């Protein structure tokens, strides 16, 4: 599965540099480096700067991580502190586990 | 609390209010919803929450120049646009004019994974952006409780909602939050805890298979408000609430009189008819001509150039027009001239309060001088007698306040007048006409009484009520040895009198002739006597002349003899 050449397009919506946002971004980067090395793009959108973008992705909660590609679209809200949930949400399985 | 100095009320600054533009609601609330504060509108499914809040926004945009944001959690914006188009709201246009902004918040639990701490800043930012982009003064959140089904962490939602409402107050936007009614609570998730300024409860009740929509202001901090349950109506014009429970008896009265359309009836009512703005009850058993009387009154009103609304609960407009045609009344012409509005509905189409409301609406719309309800008896099928009475009291009150004459017809099943109460409204009305059957001599005829007529001299006599091809009229009844005579008995009596008349005339002329004859005989007798006298006179004269002649001749002879004897003188 990891060899399909797919790129994970991830968007993290935050509202200013709050503790939760910073934690979320740190967590996300950590998981990506660990499981999706060189196969991911993270776009951080600060809604305080671009409030009009909130409507498009139906953002209510902050922080929200949106995975657009690969399908299906999933949203993960919160500071991403629960690693298992994030990995399931992103359709990433730990490499050690067999297919 | 925001206290703003008000120019119109210099005494004490009162709570500023935002007009809803919903007919009647602003009267109950004394000016609208609390400005700059959130109001909770709650009720069960299908009770009109979305329509209510949408109307608040659209009226705000169109009438008060206050742009509004509608944040829909349940319906998509396209669906919403189509749904409210039936009320005549063009959301597309309003959005282009930047007076309304619709925002659909889509929340799908299956798409969302929750990990750790979060807040709802996204919602705040979205709403804030929407408000700022059009300078909104009004906001609707419909139904924000969806958050509870979309997200699992209730503690966060509750904390964030509390923050949201405070934030909306700081933004000074007038907000409507809708909430679904819960078991034993106003809302399923207890939103009333957070919104404590104004709570409006909408209800959709079905009793005896008849539905009635009701609105009640549960609380309104810092303002007096009506506390009753007010019926409201959702139709093509949107919501209308009519605060019909006000019961004052202080309306102006008119001493102007209007004709009933039946000259005989007018003369029974002091010769001039009903008072303008009075209420008239026409009661009677089946087939006594109540509708004909009502139709005649309607016709007279239109003929004299005034408008009339005829509410029919038994017959269709076409049927009434046809039937009235048969007694020489052309209502169609008045309908075509827009002088008459014939409105027919089955009583069971909606509840009593709804009937009252729709009648009030029609009256306000058409501004008639006469309203006819035919018959009110049928309304009992949708409510109890006491409910009907309460509705009629309010209706009479409303109409009299507007100086509108109202005529009710009522079917009485009981022919005993003393027991008859007619939905016990006979005490409320100003004039009560009773049409009843008079059964005599093997036929039924109609008799009309004026049972009461406040403030005018009226006849205490029963009149026979005659319906003919040329309309209605009242004729005097005949008092016979066996009581009053009506119908063919009356005609018989009339015929008998006519015959007697003819015979008497005949007799008189015969006597006249005899006298004439006698006179002729006498005169001829006189003539013959005169002739006799004349001839007798002639005879007598003849003798006299002869005697005179004889005497003359004899004298002459004597003189001649004397001369011949020798002239001795």
TrEMBL record, chain A:
GO biological process, one term: rhythmic process
SUPFAM superfamilies registered for this protein in UniProt: Thioredoxin-like
Occurrences of domain KaiB (ranges): 11-92
Entries under Pfam families matching the protein: KaiB
Regions annotated as coiled coil: none
Protein name: Circadian clock protein KaiB
Annotated source species: Dyadobacter sediminis
TrEMBL record, chain B:
Gene3D superfamilies assigned: P-loop containing nucleotide triphosphate hydrolases (3.40.50.300)
Entry keyword set: Coiled coil, Hydrolase, Kinase, Phosphoprotein, Repeat, Transferase
Top-rank taxon, per record: Bacteria
Keyword match Magnesium: no
CDD domains: KaiC-N
Recorded coiled-coil stretches: 512-546
UniProt entry tagged with the keyword Lyase: no
Enzyme Commission number(s) of this protein: 2.7.11.1
A Pfam short name: ATPase
Matching NCBIfam families: PRK09302.1
Protein name stated in the entry: non-specific serine/threonine protein kinase
Species this chain originates from: Dyadobacter sediminis
Classification of source organism: Bacteria, Pseudomonadati, Bacteroidota, Cytophagia, Cytophagales
């Amino acid at each position: 599965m990891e060899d399909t050449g797919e790129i994970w397009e991830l968007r993290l919506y935050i509202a200013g540099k709050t503790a939760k946002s910073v934690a979320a971004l740190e967590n996300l980067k950590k998981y990506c480096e660990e499981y999706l090395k060189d196969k991911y793009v993270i776009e951080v959108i600060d809604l305080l700067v671009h409030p009009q973008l909130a409507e498009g992705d139906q953002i209510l909660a902050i922080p929200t991580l949106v995975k657009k590609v690969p399908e299906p679209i999933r949203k993960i809200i919160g500071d991403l502190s629960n690693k298992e949930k994030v990995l399931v949400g992103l359709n990433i399985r730990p490499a050690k586990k067999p297919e | 609390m925001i206290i703003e100095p008000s120019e119109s009320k210099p005494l004490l600054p009162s709570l500023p209010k935002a007009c809803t533009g919903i007919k009647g609601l602003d009267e109950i609330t004394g000016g609208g919803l609390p400005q700059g504060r959130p109001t909770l509108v709650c009720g069960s499914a299908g009770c009109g929450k979305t329509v209510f809040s949408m109307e608040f926004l659209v009226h705000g945009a169109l009438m008060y120049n206050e742009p509004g944001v509608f944040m829909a959690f349940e319906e998509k914006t396209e669906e919403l646009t189509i749904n409210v188009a039936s009320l005549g709201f063009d959301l597309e246009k309003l959005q282009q004019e930047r007076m309304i902004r619709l925002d659909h918040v889509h929340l799908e639990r299956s798409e969302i994974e929750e990990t750790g701490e979060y807040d709802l800043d996204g919602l705040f930012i979205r709403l804030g952006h929407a408000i700022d982009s059009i300078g909104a003064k009004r906001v609707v959140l419909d139904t924000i409780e969806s958050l509870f089904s979309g997200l699992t962490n209730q503690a966060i939602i509750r904390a964030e909602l509390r923050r949201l409402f405070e934030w909306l107050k700081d933004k000074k936007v007038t907000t409507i939050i809708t909430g679904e009614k819960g078991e034993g609570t106003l809302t399923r998730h207890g939103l009333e805890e957070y919104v404590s300024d104004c709570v409006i409860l909408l209800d959709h009740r079905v009793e005896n298979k008849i539905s009635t929509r009701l609105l009640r202001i549960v609380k309104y901090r810092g303002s007096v408000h009506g506390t009753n349950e007010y019926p409201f109506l959702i139709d093509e014009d949107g919501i209308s609430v009519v605060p019909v429970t006000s019961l004052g008896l202080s309306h102006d009265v008119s001493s102007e009189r209007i004709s009933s359309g039946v000259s005989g009836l007018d003369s029974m009512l002091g010769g001039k008819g009903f008072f303008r703005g009075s209420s008239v009850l026409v009661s009677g058993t089946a087939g006594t001509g109540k509708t004909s009387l009502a139709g005649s009154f309607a016709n007279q009103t239109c003929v004299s150039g005034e408008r009339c609304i005829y509410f029919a609960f038994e017959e269709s407009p076409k049927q009434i027009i046809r039937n009235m045609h048969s007694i020489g009344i052309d209502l169609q012409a008045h309908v075509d001239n827009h002088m008459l509005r014939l409105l027919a509905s089955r009583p069971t189409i909606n509840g009593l309060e709804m009937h009252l409301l729709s009648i009030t609406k029609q009256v306000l719309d058409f501004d008639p001088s006469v309203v006819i309800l035919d018959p009110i008896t049928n309304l009992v099928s949708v409510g109890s007698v006491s409910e009907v009475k309460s509705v009629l009291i309010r209706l009479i009150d409303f109409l009299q306040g507007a100086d509108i004459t109202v005529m009710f017809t009522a079917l009485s099943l009981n022919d005993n007048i003393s027991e008859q109460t007619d939905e016990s409204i006979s005490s409320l009305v100003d004039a009560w006409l009773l049409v009843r059957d008079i059964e005599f001599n093997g036929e039924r005829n109609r008799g009309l009484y004026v049972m009461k007529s406040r403030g005018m001299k009226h006849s205490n006599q029963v009149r026979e009520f005659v319906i003919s091809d040329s309309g209605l009229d009242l004729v005097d009844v005949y008092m016979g040895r066996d009581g009053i005579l009506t119908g063919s008995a009356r005609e018989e009596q009339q015929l008998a009198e006519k015959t007697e008349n003819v015979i008497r005339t005949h007799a008189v002329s015969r006597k006249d002739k005899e006298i004439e004859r006698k006179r002729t005989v006498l005169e001829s007798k006189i003539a013959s006597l005169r002739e006799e006298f004349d001839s007798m006179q002639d005879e007598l004269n003849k003798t006299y002349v002869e005697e005179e002649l004889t005497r003359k001749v004899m004298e002459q002879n004597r003189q001649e003899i004397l001369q011949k004897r020798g002239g001795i003188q």
